[in-house]
Amino acid sequence: MKKVSVYVFISLLSAFLAVMIYGKLGNHSTIIKEESSGNANFKFASVTGGASQDAFIQAAKVSTPAVVHINTEVKVKQRKNMQMDPFWQFFGMPYDQGQMPDQMQQGAGSGVIISNDGYIVTNNHVIEGADKINVNLNDNRNYTAKVIGSDPSTDLAVIKIDAKDLSFLTFGNSDELEIGQWVLAVGNPFNLSSTVTAGIVSAKARNINILREKAGNLAVESFIQTDAAVNPGNSGGALVDLSGNLIGINAAIATPTGSYAGYSFAIPSNLAKKVVRDIIDFGVVQRGFLGVNIREVDEELAKDLKLDKIQGAYITDVVKGGAAEEAGLKNGDVITKVGGAEIKNIADLTEHVARYRPGDAVKFEYIRKGALQQKEIVLKSKDNSTKLLSKTDVVTGNISADLGIEYSEVSSLQAKKMGLNGGVRIDKINEGIVKQNTNIQPGFVVFSINNQAVRTKEDFDSLIKENKGGGILLQGKYEGSSGVQYYAFGY
Prior knowledge:
This protein has 491 residues and is α+β, with helices and mostly antiparallel strands. It contains 13 helices and 28 strands. Strands 11-12-13-16-15-14 form a six-stranded antiparallel barrel, surrounded by four helices. Mean pLDDT is 83; it is low at 1-51 and 79-99.
């Protein structure tokens, strides 16, 4: 399980104490709802009806069959010290020579079945980089899953197993959650399968800054905070209300030790539902942007602006060509509602805007110079377009993130100086496949991939995608050096 700063990805507390405290409620019955979404037919089960003898037990009975145990395997290449290897010293070829056998790194987490034909939602960090994903059902059946898509900005992913007539959960309405409301969490902490724990909703729209390292300014953090105990292994598991509705995907804990220390965090179901539908329908998340820079409204700012409440999102800058500028929003406006939902802070605004796609017309309320105003704004993509993305667009965009490199096309003058007809220069090495498996340094200019010429970024992207799933051999030169270098890795 991965750990980000003092935050660790998760699990939850025993329901027994909650049962003792909360007491008995009335009888629940199960109703099936159907929703059609693109190529997938979602039949989400929900618990409704009259009072039950034990709401906690009924919610656990509904949710546990729909929560799976996920185990992943990642191949990690081991290398000798290349500077001590004669092949490295004389030929500069760090593939094959000096390489040690691969090692398998294992991980574990949880997932929630959301359709009877095998679609499962989990955290991106649970399946990220996995070479193999094994899914173990509550009844001990085992399946190999394939990745449908993932979204690092929300830490969500969708995988699928080849199965039918499965138990599954429906997405509830996370906007209706109240502070102090009882919730259950279901997952597999420390490989303890089908563990149910309980707590209350402690806060909403909580930003804990755990996704910025991977997603930067695109990160969407508006977590449901609970006091339910969660530990490594519960990442991707279900947070449900006492009616058995899925109201969150467990994602993180705040801890100085690596284990539960009192606070856990879940991705709201309304955000998760939108991301999941995009991934299944389009293969990519269609995210709308307002095109503003914002800051929190504090007491001093509220006093200066003569606001009735210390809440909202204050616009510090309007992005040129963005949706906000086009609609006439200005610096100094305070956004108070999005689509009818009240905006209390930046996390609130980020989450609610992220529920929409480019091209969606959304009603905004904002305060300008003390006056409340309303405006319908057509959201845009991060590139200031209302066009929806295709899966191909995203695959091309993800090459840099997957490989962990930033790259650019060399100029014709640079290529001529190096004796090349073109090429792509690797400008920066980040965490990723290239850093893990090679000793490439910034400044390396690629002119061939698997013996096919690379002259432009389009050539580079096309050949990387074409050879995905197999070995990739880069051939190139370092600027200022006449020698040809080779680097190989699997992708």
